[in-house]
Structures are given as C-alpha cells and as structure tokens.
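Task card 7
Instruction: Convert sequence to structure tokens.
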Amino acid sequence: MVQGNIRLAHLALLSMELSTIGSKLARAHAFAFYAIRGTFQWIWDDGLQDWKALLFISLAMFFAVFSGVTAVSIALQHRILLPDAKQSFMTIWGTVGMGLTAINYWTLVRRRRWSRFEREFRHVSKGKRLAFGTVVWASVILIVGVTEWMAQCVRNLPR
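Output:
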C-alpha cells in the first residue's frame, strides 16, 4: 500500500514537471511567433501579420525537422527519409510541412492562442524584446543555413 502511494506521488510529481516543461515550451513557441508577427506588423501593418508569421514559423520548424533527419542520416552514414525520387521526396516532406503548419495554426493562430502570453511579453523591457526578437530571427536564418549545409553533406551518402 505504501509503495502504491509512493508511486502515485511520484507520477503526480512527474506530471507536474511535464506540465511545467510544456508550459515553458508553449511560451517560447508563442514568443517566437510574437517576435516574427511583430516584425511583419512593424514593416507593413496590413492585417495579415498572423498568416505571415505562421508561414515563417512553419518553414523554420520544417527546416529544423529536415535538419534533424539529415543529422541522423549523417550519423548513420545512410540516407533516412531522403529518397532520390522527386515524387516520394515531395510526398514525405510535403506531408511533414502541412502537418507542421496545421499544428502551428492550431496552437498559435486559431482563436489567437498566441495572445494568451501577449500581456506577459509586453511587460518585458523593449531592449529585451529587441534582443529576443533578434535571437529569433537569427535562429531562423541559422536553421535554414545549417539545413542547406547538412543537405549537401547527405547527397553523397548511400541510399
């Protein structure tokens, strides 16, 4: 009986820790969207900044996933999920891209879910917001660059 209570307490603690981690990831995800959205709003406030930010964050996540697959392929010295045939490649990665876009839409854009953190983000000093926004944009550029470099490395691997 005591062991069962200890296990339940341990599971409850683990559940709270996972909830905290999930909350922090959701906040970071929303801030990246907020920073990208803010940039588009600053450049041209046409009312489409949510959709532009959705496009950019989905592309960044797509490139990050693709980079992860190429990293695994390089580590194993064998192509994984990187077929030579254009149709197979487009089917696999088109599905991944659409899935990531759907997830981002559901978690950020639909019912403006990103805005649940907006008040918290606005209370951060302007300097920190600028610094964090710069980190977000630099990360997007770095993700795309690393993906391109890793894809070049994978081209010569056996299938």
